[in-house]
Amino acid sequence: MFKNASVLLIALAACGLLASCGGGSSHHSSSSAATLTSLSVEDSSHIPLHLSPSFDPSILEYTLDIKEYILGVKITPEATPGSTITVNSDILQDYHVAGKAVAHTPNPDDKSKFDTGTWESGQDWPNIFFTDNSVIVRTIVNPDPIGAGPTGSWNDNGSYHSGRTTNASIKVTNGSDTTTYTIAIKAADGNYSYALFDQNEGSKAYVGSNGAKVPYNIYIPKDIKPDEKLPVVVGLHGSGQGNQPVDFILKRYAVGTAWAIDSDNGHNRAIVLAPQATDWDFTYHAYATLGYNGGLTGWAYADSGDLNAIGEATFELLEKLVNGTLPGYESVLGHVDAKKIYITGLSMGGRGTLSLVKAHPGYFAAVIPVCAAGLLSVSDAQSIFSANPGLQWYFVHAFDDPQVDIGYTKQNIVNLKKAGFNDASVKSLIYPTGTHFYDDPHYSWTAAYANTSIRDWLFAQNNKTLP
Fold it and tell me: In the chain, where are the structural domains located?
């Protein structure tokens, strides 16, 4: 039930063209009984959103600009007392992989697990979800299919949802009066950021000395000055991108693009490497146990957390890039600041981040594990501290993450501090239960990489083990 005794109805059928949803005049009489009194919008980036024009009850048509990787927008409308609100969207989903429905009500216990439903294979994923007094309008046609792995399928035209406009309508009914407001939700054109990178897959992928093949995206800033030394940021993807085209690491989230966009705009210039972990063992529902059948989890083994062949080859790739010996990128020779090599990753990539630091602790200046699906033992942490006591950590996680339990991040922080790292060296941003993320609170990386203070923090760090 809405405030002021308004009622929200969720319409799961797509409404098609705005005209068929009741669109019409851009203004209406403020004396109508069917009127919105407020209209707010939010997405998982936690960057303030602004309707254009600013909300006014008499204005019916709005536009909203969002980032290209945003999956859904939370819309909170309120109306005059006694009104009924119905929200529609024009997206018809094409999601034919078994997966979890969005979770509505988190359990307030320490485990923070969600009470979730399940959509059977072959069903369409609804385009609108209800949460509290709000609706979440999905803004992407082909979301990341949970469990895609080696057997999943995509129906994508190569552009993902970059530049797409999603039309939402908000119909207010009060007695015989009806008023329809519309929002054209416009995703940014991500092609600019994707084009900053070279995509190296197939015959262009890196092949390690152990024979493991690592496709990768790489961004090299333009116009490197003769005496310029550049940081390197390594961004590791989550499990959904292990068997997709390599550029989906860029299209799916900002683990690579956030740093490249800053650099291309002249802020925090850096080289960015976004490798892909392929040929890993994935079984749906592995999220629930984090066991992954004891098999490979991207860059490391599930049971030990030690680097697997892909992890070892990925580090070789990084070394060759830093040393100026990576074929095709020899021009960076002498332009890498070895004191500013950073690594971050999300979910499975967060686990890979921990594993690469564990294997090569003296190599990195700072680490940002986001909802990391891995655990460093006290012994692991002690080894890292002995090799690099000045290493800086910044953990990000949502407390009610339903896929990677917050306990992993909590325990990693405890173990690092037991090993000798102090509070100043181990920072964390834990989003409290109920913080808006979509599809679910596992998607905390959306806000993490949109957070300019975190990105600026990273570039302020230096490897203190090097002269």
Answer: 3-187, 191-459
The residue type of 115 is D
Dihedral (Cα; 447, 448, 450, 456), 10-degree rounding: 150
Sheet holding 134-138, edge to edge: 36-42, 72-79, 134-138, 128-131
Taking every pair of Cα atoms in the chain, the longest distance, rounded to a whole number of angstroms, is: 77
Contacts of 41 (CB under 8 A, 6+ apart): 49, 51, 64, 73, 74, 75, 76, 183
Instruction: Give the model's pLDDT for residue 29.
Output: 63
Instruction: Tell me what pLDDT residue 440 has.
Output: 86
CB atoms within 10 A of CB 151: 10
Whole-number pLDDT of residue 19? 29
CA-wise closest residue to 30 among 78, 81, 76, 80 = 80
- Is the pLDDT assigned to residue 160 strictly greater than 70? no
Return the SS3 of 366: strand
284 vs 248: CA distance, rounded Å: 20
Which among 69, 74, 63, 67 is positioned nearest to 184, based on CA atoms?
Answer: 63
Q: Which CATH superfamily is domain 191-459 in?
A: Alpha/Beta hydrolase fold, catalytic domain (3.40.50.1820)
Among left, alpha and beta (phi > 0; psi -120 to 50; other), residue 63 is: beta
